[in-house]
Amino acid sequence: MTILFGILQILTVVLIIVVLYRPLGDYMAHIFTSKKNLRVERGFYRAIGVNPAAEQSWTQYLRGVLAFSLIGMLLVYGIQRAQQILPYSLGFPAIPEGLSFNTAASFVANTNWQSYSPDITMGYSVQILGLVVQNFVSAAVGIAVAVALIRGLARRKSGTLGNFWVDLTRATLRLLLPLAVISAVVLIAGGVIQNFAGFTDVTTVTGSTATVPGGPAASQEAIKMLGTNGGGFFNVNSAHPFENPNAVTNLFQVVLMLAIPFALPRTFGTMVGDRRQGTAIAAVMATIFAASLTAMTLFETLTGGAATRLAGAAMEGKEDRFGIWGSTLFGSASTLTSTGAVNSMHDSFTSLGGMMAMINMMLGEIAPGGTGSGLYGLLVLAIVTVFIAGLLSVAHPSTSGKRSAPRRSNSRASTSSSHPRWCSPEPR
Question: Is 157 inside a domain boundary?
Fold first, then answer.
């Protein structure tokens, strides 16, 4: 029965991702190729002095990414240092300089590594104005970089890659924000808390008193998963029942982690004019993911020492409400998308199961990787592979119609096909 339920969980996630692949991928392609700007977007462009019709070279695009990231890091740092004067600080003092710097750098880089207990360190203002905002924009930056790389591969006679500020704004307002709102509502319906209750003293079943934290967890949980960020509202992350109450919310959070990374290959195929390329990339991602998930699940269910065999399962560090299959599915999705969220303690996995988590972290930028980073990570590997293949062969292969060697100046130089090709040889 446990095995059947576990298989049904995996098949449910696969079915949802397959259903989302085409519409979500095409929608993202539409977002970044549309010539129309929303009214709120036009107002934002005027406020920051950006001409949305002006495209940028790769150096200008890069400067935009770096400048925005630096400003974001300084703002997150300043918000943490000013915590004691902000509303809803819950009486917490300013966060120390070193911890503020570490957290700011971590969230701006979409690493979201936390060396503190969030629910007893940060008030609601820091969580919302600092961490949640960065969960949105750091994910949007990753998507923007992936889109810029796609344009570079798709265009033939252009020295521009689009406009970073336009890509950032559209990724945030047209993609991440509406999906996060919908996801937060679903999570609230599933039991994830969303309030400003602070700390509440309750009487336990044994008659003692305990302090229960509250907070706007659902809104942070939604973008934390959707943007493959990973920073938790509570100390134990998605193992906390206020963040991840049951098996249904667990599956939903897995879907959120995988939806955009697996749909971006469709976006790539649509934007370069050859959707077969997108299908090939998605197939590579899915194959690696399936192999990793299978191995981790087998290692957690079939191996272990005497204690594991006596207990009947390797449940050390896992929640009963998820079980082994729900834990390995979540763990594989988290580590392979470089999200960092956990619903079980990976250091409590069996030796081989923990090994798979570590291998996943090494593959966490390609299978399927984070929002944006997974696609451009795999594309960069493909470009490097094509270049090396060109050094080893007489004919120079091409990636999406772009040759791996300089074009010859004589009449025998080959011309690019009107249709992009993934890795087809071209004569000298």
Answer: yes
- Predicted confidence at residue 328, as pLDDT, reads 95
DSSP 9-36: HHHHHHHHHHHHHHHHHHHHHHHHH---
Amino acid 237 reads: N
Tell me 346's DSSP state: G
- Residues 158 and 89 both lie in one domain: yes
**285's tokens:** 């991602």
pLDDT, tens only, 105-130: 999 999 888 889 998 999 999 999 99
226 domain residue, yes or no: no
Shared domain check, 102 and 28: no
| Total count of domains within the chain | 2
Query: What's the CA gap between 35 and 37, in Å, rounded?
Result: 7
Query: Is there a single domain that holds both residue 285 and residue 401?
Result: yes
Helix (H, G, I), strand (E, B) or coil at 84: helix
Amino acid in the structure at residue 384: V
Tell me the C-alpha distance between 147 and 375, whole Å. Answer: 9
Please name the amino acid found at residue 357: A
Please check whether residue 229 is in contact with residue 257, taking contact to mean a CB–CB distance below 8 angstroms: no
Q: Are residues 85 and 22 in the same domain?
A: no
* Residue 42: predicted pLDDT: 94
pLDDT digits (tens, 9 = 90+) for 334-385: 999 999 899 999 988 988 999 999 999 988 778 899 999 989 988 888 888 8
* Domain membership flag for residue 215: no
Nearest to 214 by CA among 201, 231, 229: 201
**How high is the pLDDT of residue 1?**
60
Q: At residue 319, what is the residue type?
A: E
Residue type present at position 167? D
CA pair distance 116, 148, nearest whole angstrom: 35
Read off the pLDDT of each residue in 287-294 and give the average, rounded to a whole number: 95
CA–CA dist 148, 379 (Å, integer): 12
Q: What's the rounded Cα separation, in Å, for the pair 118 and 374?
A: 28
Average pLDDT over residues 313-321: 84
Last residue of some domain: 149, 177, 192?
Answer: 192
Q: Could you give the CA distance from residue 288 to residue 335 in angstroms, rounded to a whole number?
A: 12
Task: Describe the chain by its helix, strand, coil percentages, rounded to 5.
Answer: 60, 5, 35
Q: What's the CA angle centered on 245, arms 241 and 249, to 5 degrees?
A: 140
Range of the domain at 41: 37-192
